[in-house]
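Protocol step 4 of 5: obtain the predicted structure for the target chain.
Materials: sequence only (see below). No template structures provided, no constraints applied. The aim of this step is simply to have a reference model before the mutagenesis design in step 5. Sequence pasted as it appears in the construct record:
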Amino acid sequence: MAINGKTERLEGDNQDFTVFANSVASFQRPRGTSLEDRASGFYNWQDTRRESGLWFYSRSLSRKPGPITDIRSDNGLPFSGINFASQDYLGLAGHSKVIEAASEALERFGPHSAGSPTLLGNTTLSLQLEHEIGDALHMPEVVLFPTGWGAGFGAIAGLVRPYDHIVIDRLAHACLHQGTAAATKNVHRTEHLCVESIEEHLRRIRSEDDRNMILVVTEGLFSMDADMPDIAVMQEICRRYQAVLLVDIAHDFGAMGPGGTGALGLQNMLGKVDLVMGSFSKTFASNGGFVAVKSPAIKQYLKFYGGPHIFSNALSPVQCAVVSSALEIVRSSEGDARREQLIRVAQGLRKALAGRSISCLGMPSPITPVVIGEERVAAVTAKIIAERGVLTNLVEYPAVPLGQARLRMQAMATHTLEQACQAATIIGDAVRFAASIVGSDRNGVSTHYSISEMLVDPA
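Step 4 output (structure tokens):
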């Protein structure tokens, strides 16, 4: 494979590219009595891609998630390069104050919360963290969860009952959709960011049911498309139809907006939304999540009916200390400077990609979705750029629709503009080369592409 005068190779020359006729979704509903047989179809398909060097999941870091890092594939192959794959938006995972806070908490409390927060899992650090988040968001009542996924799932499954209704953006995070599926069969999915569709659903539901709750679910910054809803309009519509609005601010809280207040701060909606949930794993250097509300009654109800809260061990003291320390930085002048650098990097990356005719979705933010389209082109591109020193995440169906495969690049405040431009150059060259050697049959059935056929240099 010739790129910029260098020869590289796709491994597994005898593998057939009809592997792209399937995806993770192809094996979601296996049949049969043998668990081994039910899992084998997926494993064999996965292993074919792995042997071809086209399996990009379950990778591991060999050192901290900085702007340059070392990783290994799930079969142990090492890669090094510019890291646009990790979620550490302000670069706080390696911050000296955050590490110091973790060390002090470990020394004082040990590594383990040793209980559910409903029993004796809380510490003075977790109670302090609840107060700090509430103060930042102008939402005084906060419930902590062991993961962001648990917060999204728990908020919905804990508050919605089978006779209630949920109106949810079709691109909302999986935790929100799975919480919805667990809570009720009365599910109404809307087109992405379409307030007209939301109002139409609410009007119809209320004309038929004026007794039960309607929960409307959206995100502050959507993680696959890097766009935002009009939260003020959504909240006004919800009030008109006696509905409750839940906004997931996992990706924007801390990383965007005045003082790190995310989409809510940018839209002057702090303290004005019914329910807010978020995650610590994007900006705050830790696992964990939260749900913020304005009513102590709702808080107490959620604590006892939100399964991931009551039936999981509480966040560890170390995690709480890390998040508190990160939040202090987020709300400081240093946080402002880091957010400014983060957006500069995101803007520079988008401009450099556009200069190579590569389109990006959404707005400048920590997330830059690089649309490639055809799944095989995207997979070959992902392999090439990893070998040439750009580490990012390939997103395929069913996480995004068929034919809309993309690279989800996640910028950090610790990146430089030079690194963004270097990454864009490598990606632009790789996309052009991959497109030139992969056919356009999206189904991957009628045309067969072997690795060796793909290695023919178009020159």
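Step 4 remarks: Confidence is low (pLDDT under 50) at residues 1-15, 440-459. The chain has two domains: 55-84+334-454, 96-330.
Proceed to step 5.
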